Amino acid sequence: MLFDLRPKRRREEIFDREKEFEELEKSLNTYPLTLILGIRRVGKSSILQAYLNENPGILIDCRELYAESGHLTKEDLIKELQSKAGLLEKITSKFKISLDLKFMTMEPRESSLREVFKELNKIGEELGRFVIAFDEAQYLRFYGSRGGKELLTLFAYAYDNLPNLRLILTGSEIGLLHDFLDITNYESPLYGRPVGEIIVEPFNRETSFEFLKHGFKEAGAEISEEEIKKAVGLLDGVPGWLVTFGVEYLKDKDFEKAIQRTFKIARGLVIGELKELERRSPRYVEILTAIALGYSRWSLIRDYLRVRGDRIPEPRLYTLLENLKKMSWIIEENETYKIADPVVATVLRGK
Questions:
Q1: Contact 327, 173 (CB under 8 A)
Q2: Residue 183 DSSP class
């Protein structure tokens, strides 16, 4: 059902992403490592989970693991892989494979991630390939004491030596994920190894309209085309917000109340994300607020901050703007900045 707030788990539940599924399949046939990239709530996790529902593989939510302790360790990852025992048994049983996966019964501190990857590669030998997917993989930079370099070395080993293993990394902070992988840097373990990239874009206006129209038809609810157009105009093309509006409208079929509740929900989610961002630097939120209010050029942002008493050094402002681009909060076009998600901009204007 389209109006389901949880990530979709079946391909038929996902609207108008056939091209992305085709690109993902083609990439996995070509590259040992594939990236699925896009802003928050655009549907990356749904595409990934639906793909894994049809193909043998396991999913690790890196953000969830990071949130538990503020860092990631080898033991964390092995415990998470061991927690997939039921899924692995289901996969091996479905395809009538008999394998002795030793890491499933070993103490995490006594296990090696390289050995785990080699054992999962054995499943791939029987099935053609096996996928290990890392959702929100930019959090892997908090692995170990060297900014995740040990994991990059492991990924490089898998890339070169485990032909039946495929790695998928998703990221909503696109620049940070690219910085973490650092593929163009000679000193990076992944240097010189091409990777596949699938960019998941927000829907355009026409597709957003059809998405809502189809969702309401599926739910057996009537809504005017004018109201759908108005909702698209307010929410733009991020599927997560369109789904939220659909769910809220179905409660009492009142457009204004549904929009108000949608933005209330959005405000709660976005404010939580802004607080996490603010822990990195309070200036990030001030800069985002400036852009949301229309101060869209570098000099205007600088002047906005100075009026508010923050005489930020110009090199520092440049660095913060570059970081916000890397974290996919903003985009830059023709020396003009804008918030990547229009709903986030609306929330910021109302802060």
A1: yes
A2: T
Residue carrying the six token digits 């040992």: 32
Q: Is 37 within a domain?
A: yes
Asked whether residue 123 is domain-assigned, the answer is yes
Residue range 292-325, pLDDT digits in tens: 999 999 999 999 999 999 999 999 999 999 999 9
Same domain assignment for residues 192 and 58: yes
Q: Are residues 35 and 118 in the same domain?
A: yes
Least confident window among 116-125, 161-170, 249-258, 259-268: 116-125
Q: Are residues 255 and 40 in contact, defined by beta-carbon separation less than 8 angstroms?
A: no
Task: Please report whether residue 2 resides in a domain.
Answer: no
**What is the per-residue pLDDT across 17-38, written as a single tens digit (0 to 9) for each?**
999 999 999 999 999 999 999 9
- Nearest CA to 265 out of 281, 246, 284, 279 is that of 246
Please give the backbone phi and psi of residue 340, each rounded to the nearest 5 degrees, phi first. -65, -35
Distances (CA, A) of 184 to 105, 150, 170, 175, 189: 38, 18, 19, 13, 10
Q: What is the pTM of this model?
A: 0.93
Boundary of a domain, candidates 264, 279, 294: 279
The encoded tokens of residue 146 equal: 């060297």
Picking from 227, 246, 279, the residue at the C-terminal end of a domain is: 279
| Same domain? 195 vs 94 | yes
Same domain, 185 and 221: no
pLDDT in tens, 42-69: 999 999 999 999 999 999 999 999 988 8
The pair of structure tokens assigned to 266 is 């959005």
pLDDT score of 147 more than 70: yes
Task: Say whether pLDDT at 96 is over 80.
Answer: no
Instruction: Give the number of domains in the chain.
Output: 3
CA distances from 146 to 140, 160, 280 (A): 11, 22, 19
Residue 59, strand partner residues: 133
Q: In this structure, what is the dihedral angle of CA atoms 269, 273, 274, 276, given to the nearest 10 degrees?
A: 140
pLDDT confidence of residue 194: 96
Alpha-carbon distance 135 to 72, whole Å?
A: 14
- Both 128 and 230 in one domain: the answer is no
Domain residue limits at 120: 11-199
Q: Is residue 1 part of a domain?
A: no
